[in-house]
TrEMBL record:
Domain of life: Bacteria
Record InterPro entries: Bact_Sigma-Reg, GAF, GAF-like_dom_sf, HATPase_C_sf, HATPase_dom, PAS, PAS-like_dom_sf, PAS_4
Pfam families to which the protein is assigned, alphabetical: GAF, HATPase_c_2, PAS_4, sCache_3_2, SpoIIE
CDD domains hit by this protein: HATPase_RsbW-like, PAS
Protein name listed in UniProt: SpoIIE family protein phosphatase
UniProt domain PAS: residue ranges: 225-265
UniProt-listed Gene3D superfamilies: 3.30.450.40, Histidine kinase-like ATPase, C-terminal domain (3.30.565.10), PAS domain (3.30.450.20), PPM-type phosphatase domain (3.60.40.10)
Keyword Transmembrane helix (UniProt): yes
Compositional bias annotation for Basic and acidic residues: 906-918
Entry keywords, A to Z: ATP-binding, Cell membrane, Hydrolase, Kinase, Membrane, Nucleotide-binding, Phosphoprotein, Transferase, Transmembrane, Transmembrane helix, Two-component regulatory system
Subcellular locations according to the entry: Cell membrane
Predominant subcellular localization, coarse grouping: membrane
Positions of region (Disordered): 889-918
Amino acid sequence: MSAFRSFSGLSSRLLASRSPRSVAGQVFLLQVALVVLLVACAVVAQVLQSQRAGRAEAERRSIAVAQTYAHSPGVLAALRAPEPSKVLQPLTDAGRKAAGVDFIVVMDTDGIRYTHPQPDRIGKRFVGRIEPSLAGRVYTESVHGPLGHEVQATVPINDREGKVAALVSAGLKVETVTSLAERQLPLILGAGAAGLAVATAGTALVGRRLRRQTHNLGPAEMTRMYEHHDAVLHSVREGVVIVGADGRLLLANDEASRLLGLPRDAEGRPVAELPGLTRGIRELLTSGRRASDEVHLSGDRLLAVNQRPTGHHGFCGGTVATLRDSTELRALSGRAEMARERLKLLYDAGLGLGGSLDVTRTAEELAQIAVPRFADFVTVDLLDAVLQGEEPDGAGTGMRRTAVKGIREDHPFYEVGSLIDFVPSTPHARGLGTGRSELVTDLATATGLRLQDAARVERIEEYGVHSLISVPIQARGIMLGVATFWRSRTPEPFDEDELSLAEELVARAALSIDNARRYTHEHTLAVTLQRSLLPRALPEQSALEVAYRYLPAQSGVSGDWFDVIPLPGGRAALVVGDVVGHGLHAAATMGRLRTAVHNFAALDLPPDELLSRLDDLVSRIDQDESGPDHDSGVIGATCLYAIHNPVERRCTMARAGHLAPALVGPDGDVTFADVPTGLPLGLGGMFQSTELELAEGTQLVLYTDGLIEDRARDLDVGMDMLREALARHPDRSPDAHCQALVDELLHGRPKDDVAVLVARTLATPADRVADWNVPSDPAAVAGMRAAVSHKLHEWGLSELSFTMELVLSELITNAIRHGSPPIHVRLLRDRTVTCEVSDGSSTSPHLRYATTTDEGGRGLFLVAQVADRWGTRYTPRGKVIWAEQAVPGQDAPLAHEAGPPKQRRPGRDMDQADTRVR
């Protein structure tokens, strides 16, 4: 308060002195100079504006005159006259004078003048650009012409057909435009002078008021007064705050702003609205009452506040307050503050740990939370079994360095990923063996660490590390690893209270690490199950050139699957499906559906019928698994099934809620197949097949929704991206297409499983197919046997003639006796030799086992005995019975391929069959 009284007395003495060189006089001169400058700028701006307006008016008038003349009647007729200048020159002179322009020039399309104010210029080339006008546009420009600097507009003259027949240009000289602006200059200067007079009078009034308010103080006196003001208010280490009678902050020195946390624009604002003030300080400053050494909390400071009214010092009912930082009281609140920080650390650990269900990430989160709030360096070491999701067996002390975090980018500890075998005397090994934490207050006494690696301990000490806490990580009775906290910046070592805090922090992290370990274990099992259910390799077949990519999701497993299934007759089936959901249930359901598709494909069902049977199967699975003790079932599944016939070069496909496949034609055209969309499996939908004729080399792209859809990308956008990726290089191989789709459409590991199957269609050469129409007459069988034998001889397969003749005889005989016309025979050479006999009947043949006394019933039995495989498939026009025989010198077909296996009966049955054939 004594400092404030000294400042008030000094101010009164300064105000009592006067000086003829007052601040008011200097401010007055400055304001007059500013007003003169502004008026001058205004005059210049007005002149420039007037010139600009005059030029714009000149261009507008030139365009109007030129357009008027261009559309005047008689102009086109004058242009067609033998001497257009004699007709047009008088007209342009009269029009120029009437319109108030300096010239009107008519010219031909080459720019040769017909008219000009100066007759000697007629017949010469026009000065200016005519190309824009020849294009039908009005063009204005500024040129240096015969009359001087000119502003002109050129307009086309169109004939009746709309073509440009001639051009007309009208304009004014620039000096004419300038004279228009200069005529406005006296008015502008008069207005400026009037404004200057008004501004000067206003400035004089303001200066007079300013002189009264500053008491005619000179610059030196004002400077000295403000120097004392700064010395008193801003140099002392005591806060000073002056509040007016209206509750507004009039003044706050630097120390007060720092102690109260005031913003820079605090002065002049109501105290009640200032941010950062506590409730007690705000109420004190606005109350106007006296206060002596009242203690108030402001942020993390305790302030002693004194306040007095200032009415007797010339202020109108305000108050002045002084603030002092009571640093001697901070020691009393130190322990409370430390406890608050520790509680905040544990609270943040509860929020920040365990959100990823990843063991390594959770260990890193523990280290990040502890540095630098609790320790300067943190290392986390976990047993290898924990990182793999397994439960540790307790054998050995070797641990994997999982996380390292410190206040510096470089550190002296073992790198992440290092396998460390701690010696038994180290704090890490003792903690792992006993389950108790270890506190080392002086690193120099840690003999176990020196036995482990003396050179590394020296490097750690060079970094200033002098104390550590080693806490075993254990949860649910399982020892997972060790977390170690190291201190370097603070000279005091860790104490028992900090040991308790470290144990609490690690205990929270241990539960999250164990949860992540369990999740990793279950995820590994699910992925193993899923991969065991997916095809490990694609089967050999000659209908398609196939490549695939399968990418599992980031977390969990899904029910995506794909398949390539060889079918009889050289055909192949392509399958892509997706079971909604994630986890073991989705993977197991996917395996059941994949097995079912293989079984239905073995029956050689068309795509729509196969999906119908698969839909019934999913419905039964849902019914069996839905109930109070089970989950809600499959929830949903989609599937796309396609069959490619390389002989007929046709592909039949149907889909159940799945995305349409993309087709890349040999010409590079990319389309999406127009396949009717059925409901997802299990909803009782109807399915329709679509048959497409595909040129050889067409690529079919089958995929699941994880390839094109995610949270940040809409389905339509993904389809467009897929089309663009395929169209960019349509001649790529199926494998290159697969890799390109994964690289361009996926960024990083996908959120959902992704299955991509690309198949390039192949065509069976015509010389490998033979077919015949067979009359419905038993006598035709002998001829067919001869034709087949001849064809096999051409193919170099004469050793198969006897078997194929026997099979053909039985199949054709059955078709003639039990079927209906038309009867057709086709012989196909692929990886096997296939004989197909089709007829118009849908009667299903059955394999019978005839007794020794039966005279018939051995036809299909003989076929099954001598052929490698045989079967029946149904077509819209009847059925086809087929039989396959392996080509000598080639591998036999795989056992899991479509069709029932060959059945042989030893001994007497085979002898009877051979006797009957002979």
